Amino acid sequence: MDDLLSDVSSATQGFSGFDWVVVAVVLLSMVVGLWRGFAREVMAVLGWVLAFVGASLLAKPLANALTHVIDDPTLRYLAGWLLIFVAVLAIFGAVGAFFSKQMRQPGFNLGNRFLGGMFGVVRGLVIMMAAVLLLRAFLPDSEEAWLDNAQLVDPLDDMAEVFGQTFDDVLEADPPETLGESFESSEML
């Protein structure tokens, strides 16, 4: 046990305040993931994404239906957007709670919690990658010294670069070609 504490102490010896914020965010996200479980975490992320997409696509038709209730077009659009966003989040929250309850059955709970924790670690890292990118974008160069001196910023920058490149590759890929290549490579097995 003393060796483990010694290793942790030496690894974190030069940590700055920002490094400790990174550690805290990742650990907190992991604990939330462990507590909620994988099923609920995935449904929550899907819910947020689909709530945003659904609200963006359907707000105008709903706003048109609200003309007799709200006179101002801006408020009408905002009300339509918020109604759809909240409704989709509520639906996915209920579905996530149902799946989470089903995963509490013997044999599923441990795996659900473990995968939830791993999901939480990934979510925490994504949050911190986004934070570093935003800080670099909005802070003047003269005020970035505390960020550049943090030990965990370089690994976060590297992960963000890989993530960004992968995302660009996905956006540039031609789905029919990619699917065809997948099917052809599976036939070789």
Structural features, described:
The radius of gyration is 22 Å and the shape is extended. The chain has about 190 residues and is an all-alpha fold. The chain is built from eight helices and no strands. α2 packs antiparallel against α5. Among the domains are: about 70 residues, no CATH class; about 45 residues, no CATH class.
How is the biggest beta sheet arranged? Answer: none
What is the number of beta strands?
A: 0
- The mean pLDDT is 82
Contiguous helical run count? 8
Subcellular location: Membrane
Pfam families: Colicin_V
GO biological process, one term: toxin biosynthetic process
Membrane topology: Multi-pass membrane protein
Topology overview:
Elements: H1 2-11, H2 17-36, H3 38-65, H4 73-102, H5 109-138, H6 145-148, H7 153-172, H8 175-187
Helix pairs in contact: 2-5, 3-4, 3-5, 5-7
Protein name: CvpA family protein
InterPro entries: Colicin-V_CvpA, CvpA-like
Organism: Luminiphilus syltensis NOR5-1B
